[in-house]
Write a structure and sequence with these properties.
single chain, mainly alpha, 9 helices
């Protein structure tokens, strides 16, 4: 029989709580910009409405494309170096890229950054692996189901929060606001999420 994770009885609940926060922020950032991408593209110099519609679709798709291409790589690295480091890597990478989007000067820079964000992100896969590895077997289904609510909540609230922030802070400032959320999520995950040692993961 595989060994239970070497964690205190309630530490898996603490893990789940703060991994949930990390997933929510990670996916919030992915949906945050959708309401104002066309307006941001116009600020970057794209005047044609049809071109803005086209490149809005492209910018939304390239993130998923790069995530699809790089997910196996990050999964293998999680097996080698641990799930928590990969989860933090995803949050840090996405936060940096979001901040750089606020500094973009051309449409191509913005689309390229969207592509790179997908390549460095992938918070949900890393989080699911981390939760599964740190939760008692009898509670894994519950924990993963709870983790799914972070994804659904971010998909639901991300565009709304993004629209509100953009309306009050401005388009470029919204990216920096979102990057700050990533920083807070990284700090919380670093401080409160625990992962079993390599020997327990191997077992």
């Amino acid at each position: 029989m595989p060994a239970e994770p070497d964690l205190s009885p309630r530490s898996w609940q603490v893990n789940l709580t703060f991994v949930w926060v990390g997933v929510f922020v990670g996916l919030l950032g992915a949906n945050f910009v959708f309401p104002f991408i066309p307006f941001y593209l116009r600020e970057l110099g794209m005047e044609s409405k049809s071109a803005r519609a086209y490149w809005t679709g492209i910018s939304a798709s390239v993130t998923g494309l790069s995530l699809t291409l790089t997910a196996p790589l990050w999964g293998g690295m999680a097996d080698r170096f641990g799930r928590k480091p990969m989860f933090m890597r995803a949050l840090i990478g996405a936060g940096i890229i979001i901040a750089l989007m606020g500094l973009a000067q051309t449409v191509w820079q913005f689309v390229l950054l969207r592509f790179v964000m997908g390549a460095f992100a992938g918070t949900m896969g890393a989080a699911a692996a981390l939760v599964a590895a740190t939760t008692p077997r009898a509670k894994v289904g519950y924990a993963l189901g709870t983790l799914q609510t972070a994804m659904f909540s971010a998909n639901m609230l991300g565009p709304f929060i993004g629209g509100v922030v953009a309306a009050n802070l401005g388009l470029r400032q919204s990216f920096f606001f979102c990057a700050a959320l990533y920083i807070m999520a990284v700090v919380l995950v670093f401080l409160f999420v625990k992962e079993p040692p390599p020997q327990a993961r191997a077992a």
